[in-house]
Amino acid sequence: MSSDHAFSWTIIVLTCQHKDSVYAFQRELEIRQQRGGLLQGTLLLTVSDPQEPGLGSGGATLNALLVAAEHLSARAGFTVVTADVLDNAHILILHMGRDFPWDSCGRAFCWLPIEKRAQTVQGPVCCLDVLLDSLSNQVCPGSPPGVWLCSTDMILTIPTTFEMKWEGFFGVRVLALPGDVSYATNHGVYLADDQGRVRDIIYKGSEERIRQAAKPDGKVPLVSGPVFFCRRVLERLLKAHVTPPLDGCTYMGIDSGAPPLQVSSLHQVERAGNGEKAEVKDKRFKDICPFLFPVPLLSFWTSGHISQLWLGDPQAFPGQCRNIISPPSPGPTPRSPPSWTCLEHLPR
Predict the structure, then answer these.
(1) Using an 8 Å Cβ cutoff, are 22 and 106 in contact?
(2) d(CA 21, CA 29)
(3) What are phi and psi of 268, to 5 degrees?
(4) Where is the GDP-fucose pyrophosphorylase domain (predicted)?
(5) Which of 93-97, 161-165, 261-265, 274-278 is least confident?
């Protein structure tokens, strides 16, 4: 892994469910920085969920944002948390996800038969290294200040010709990868209307339901890959630590007596803010969603195999989404690995 052209992260936060895992994961991040995989100026943090069982990826994100803002505020000399430190901050939040029975350190640290010759110091290459390489060198360069979110439960392979345009961008942008209807029944799919606005996010739906989201080529846009929140949206998310009931997702709120709130995914917040009848375990956060997202339009654009989605007004921000060259078509000839592979489906 080479850091010669890597994206300059201000802070990288790795979230995990258990406090007992914090030291081991923090040490793994520091080792990668020492051997040149991460830039030396990047602040590395490992944050456990303040409540067990976990708060879900949505709750873990809100808690990680608070911890990141605290460290950045302290580094800048502030004695309180301030959103001013987000003006030029590039934050990456990685979620460890659930326990993995085949590796005590989780899917992210499974070894791969790969050698990174460009590394200053050689060492075992894990799924996390491949993901960081893709994010830092292909997906994230050029993005404005804000926060990137990504799960570590996957291997992400991006075409070498990938390029994302960021001029004049505002809102939330998501990479959605193509999939067959049969494969999508075990995952999530974006359902968009004729104007390109996402009306629903279908999780493990029936084939009949998923086909409603199919594009002209028969593929459906899978909920997968990195998610970007711009600085203005990030500031609204940061307000969650003083906004009931979302303060129940952060350590500060729980320590102050707020009842724990599980938000399994930020997509639930987007759906609730859109007025959709999102099926969630806890309904309390629905009333606060319009406050966090005053423009609740998750818009969709695709004409190829890899799609980009963004949050905002499509008329106010035209042309901010671009097509990406599609991966190779299936066939008998050798081809590159799939664009998105769930580790649960890898051969043991």
Answers:
(1) no
(2) 13
(3) -65, -40
(4) 84-253
(5) 274-278
The structural domain count of the chain equals: 1
In the structure encoding, which two tokens stand for residue 327, read together?
């991966």
Residue 1 lies in a domain: no
Please confirm whether the linkage preceding 245 is cis (ω < 30° from 0): yes
The whole-model pTM stands at: 0.78
CA nearest neighbour of 37 among 71, 15, 69, 12: 12
The predicted-structure confidence for 305-316, as pLDDT tens digits, reads as follows: 334 444 333 333
Q: Report yes or no: 243 and 288 within 8 Å, Cβ to Cβ.
A: yes
Spatial distance between the Cα atoms of 122 and 35, rounded to a whole number of angstroms: 8
- Indicate the helix (H) or strand (E) that contains 232: helix 231-238
Nearest partner of 66 among 120, 15, 128, 142, judged by Cα: 15
Q: Are the C-beta atoms of residues 108 and 126 closer than 8 Å to each other?
A: yes
Please check whether residue 6 lies inside any domain of the structure.
no
Residue type, 209: R
**What domain range is 240 assigned to?**
11-345
Judge whether 222 and 267 are in contact, CB under 8 Å. Answer: no
Long-range contacts (CB closer than 8 Å, 24 or more residues apart) made by 327-336: 327/159, 327/178, 336/157
CB-based contact 273:251 (threshold 8 Å):
no
* Six-digit token string for 193: 């209307």
